[in-house]
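User: For my dataset I need records formatted as: sequence, then structure tokens, nothing else. Please produce one.
Assistant:
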Amino acid sequence: MSEIATFLAAKTYAVAGASARTHKYGYKVFKALLGSGRETYPLNPITEEIDGHKAYPRIAELPVVPESLSIITPPEVTRQVVADAIAAGVKSIWMQPGAEDAQASEAAREAGILVIDDGACVLVLLARE
């Protein structure tokens, strides 16, 4: 199974950088995962709710450990999100274009996490399903 197929086969997801602002990619990725029938949780430390879904400040505060994590944050934030993901036991991470951070990718891979950080966009792949 490809890395993308593995990521998309998860039962639970979280979106770091999910946004309540509908023009932002964090909103679009969150809504696309939800719209495809996937159990998805928004992560945002300053937003309480996104379209009726409770937003969580950190992975550790989610009601479940997500199998897959999509990251749409600035690279300096990505490092902390990945550290949290490693500590929580997330299985796969997809850094969306612009969120990539070499240090975070290396740490996640060393922890045995599947990492997609090649510039591919989850929105494009979900549109093909």
